[in-house]
């Protein structure tokens, strides 16, 4: 290989690698076991294996990775000891929040404890007005006292969030200077840098989480840099962030909160590029792992985005791919509720002890056990024979549930899968139909270890006519990292009507953001020919409380109002004529194009008959019972030869299950395209 690009996705069980040859377009995929104690160790192990795979680390010209380090840190509460300095009278904003409840009628629900204990939430006298005017000067002596208190308590990071600092950052920056004199090594996070937008709770909550993550993320990134250099990679490393773009390691150190959806966002980006190459611009992504199912919508080749997100019970706000996550994965446990009804998830057997069939001590019935009982999964071994499974253990686990509900083992296993599929279908409708999209216009792209196994059932449940199973579905997130652009959003809160004199002020603010974007691209050393700027406006009708996202160059107030009306109609089903539109936030996304178009892959020689490696009895349901199905090996399947279900397709990272009324074909990019024989709508 010549110049190569490497994408890495660090997961809980495996760390996935995708390697692209710049000259030939050839792509390779492989996995190494993850090292939870230090995720960077698995990356070093993977790079060290390059030589035995015919690769050379010194040939790497692009090196990106996605990671769940930040998310896991929040979930496990392993961040640094953090303090908060805020405007006098606002120390409890972090705890009061928005007074919303996850379940309105469940009085037992408890919010997680704030990331900053109350004794470390300190106030200082200062006040800015809504236009950034100084109402009360900063009490610098008060800041000094706070710095001394933080030093005495041994804080590792400090979040500074003053009221209306998004309009005027002077007080926050001066406070940071004073604190730095007393605590030169502490990590400091300013709300005017992290999230220069109005809505004080979201701004302070996001800034606090950013500060909380900085000490540990800095250590991880430092080890990541040292290990990759030691392994022979000289290319500048990048980390994918929640909006699906890549950012430099330096940016990731300063803004770790932007990596909270790093892994799932990478999968969506990869799916968008694969779908576009295969002429499917409208896609529902369906990523099923061991614990959860992640779904997202891609319309006209572009993922849907959201600004607000809940991470382990904490509110953060930053542009991110709109991924919906439910507790339904291969390890999700089947259980009975108080009324004796069968439920599946969100509890999971996880990697340890895992499903009963894995022989690691698990005894609960899981979705994986159900698939092994029905022999949709290989009842002898997975991972091309490298991982033995115990079907008898799965039968015992499923049988225990079957006895409680008075059904056969087969019907119980079938019921577990049907319940899981119904939950997954509900999540798909939530990101599509509930937001004004017609599911008939979309295809389902299934990836992750368990995605292809359930995709046909989910498609039948939702009325989706086409299923796409990409090449090496278990490493799609790593491929997404590999193909992502380098991006960063620059934002300015406006809250101005989109017309007349206000429009001139909006265009002036836009020009300022463009300058920031160009300066950042220059600092990131992105070549001129790969630079681009994109305009994004978050707007609403005057009188509304929440805004929607409108992308595209802002040419004129009239053009923008028209496009806003179209976007509003998609989201809410209507648009208002001659009603004033208000721009809340302006964004300019600076883009450094780092990816490249996908190329076609070589077809396997031979026919589908050659790809058939055996037959297996598979339970299709109470009506069809057990049926004999062909089992195909994916690597032997030729392109453009049609095949029909029912069938099983096995590969290293996944297994696919075809229904009796489906046909399939392998396209030029190595994707399996499945279609239903008749319209199921």
From TrEMBL:
Coiled-coil residues: none
Residue intervals of the Hydantoinase A/oxoprolinase domain: 203-489
Superkingdom as given in the UniProt entry: Bacteria
Domain named Hydantoinase/oxoprolinase N-terminal: residues: 5-182
A Gene Ontology term for the protein's cellular component: cytosol
InterPro entries given in the database record: ACX-like_C, ATPase_NBD, Hydant_A_N, Hydantoinase_A, Oxoprolinase-like
The Acetophenone carboxylase-like C-terminal domain, residue ranges: 502-663
GO molecular function: 5-oxoprolinase (ATP-hydrolyzing) activity
One BP annotation, GO: glutathione metabolic process
Protein name in UniProt: Hydantoinase/oxoprolinase family protein
